[in-house]
Design a protein that fits this description.
Length: 246
């Protein structure tokens, strides 16, 4: 849990942007759209741009020399590849200097099956692959498909495996109610991981109120879709309580 020195509504735009992984993950995006959104995230000085692995070399020129780096999301959005495949995906993206962190989806079918030893073993292999290159890794749970017990047990799996972040939601789940990073789920994760792991919220963070509330809860990072970034950062200046400019 991040220790705060000020309330979220007292933070300036640059401080708030450091909480954001700017999501550019829709498979239908053209290369032109990916580049434009990457440039926007860099301009705002977001922590990272979350991209599909195929676009690292496309996006690299736009993040080099900036305060923003890339966060490729592997085995997305299902998390159902073999461990061997998942490790190779991580190794393929971790070698780039422009990559800050790597996200990967936990196999939530295995979690729902109660096979936590297998879940831990798989996550540990993924963690080791990322750490070998000096990269941090975030484990996506797809929490809308899980109950509280499953979320808590998966947090324990991640801690045992040495993961750097636990994370809610891909934003691509169908057939379930999409609540995403609601405060209740973030609190559960924070309770389970304590100071052993960081927490990233993702999914359905679409209002400034929600964004600021999670910061005040001590969240470490948030995945925000490109349409919601200007809303949560209040770029139009409506009801702006932040201090300063970026």
């Amino acid at each position: 849990m991040k220790k705060l020195t000020k309330k979220a509504n007292e933070m300036n735009l640059k401080e708030l942007a450091t909480y954001i992984d700017y999501s550019v993950l829709k498979p239908e995006f053209t290369e032109k759209e990916i580049v434009e959104l990457t440039k926007d995230g860099v301009k705002l000085e977001c922590a990272t741009i979350c991209i599909n692995p195929a676009y690292i070399e496309l996006c690299e020129p736009y993040v080099k020399g900036s305060n923003t780096m890339l966060c490729p999301v592997t085995d997305f959005p299902f998390g159902t590849s073999s461990t061997e495949s998942r490790v190779k995906q991580i190794e393929a993206v971790a070698k780039y200097d422009t990559v800050k962190e790597i996200d990967i989806v936990a196999n939530f079918g295995l979690i729902r099956s109660g096979k936590y030893e297998e879940v831990t073993k798989d996550i540990k292999a993924c963690v080791e692959a990322a750490h070998k290159f000096g990269k941090e890794i975030k484990i996506i749970f797809e929490t809308d498909a899980l109950n509280e017990e499953q979320i808590r047990k998966t947090c324990k799996c991640c801690i045992e495996a040495g993961a750097d972040f636990v994370k809610t939601s891909t934003g691509f789940l169908t057939g379930h109610e999409n609540k995403g990073a609601i405060p209740k789920v973030i609190k559960i994760m924070q309770e389970e991981v304590g100071n052993k792991c960081k927490v990233k919220g993702s999914g359905a963070i679409r209002t400034r109120e929600h964004f600021l509330e999670l910061i005040d809860m001590g969240i470490d990072r948030m995945g925000i879709g490109y349409k919601s970034v200007p809303v949560v950062l209040n770029l139009k200046g409506e009801n702006d309580n932040s201090t300063g400019e970026y």
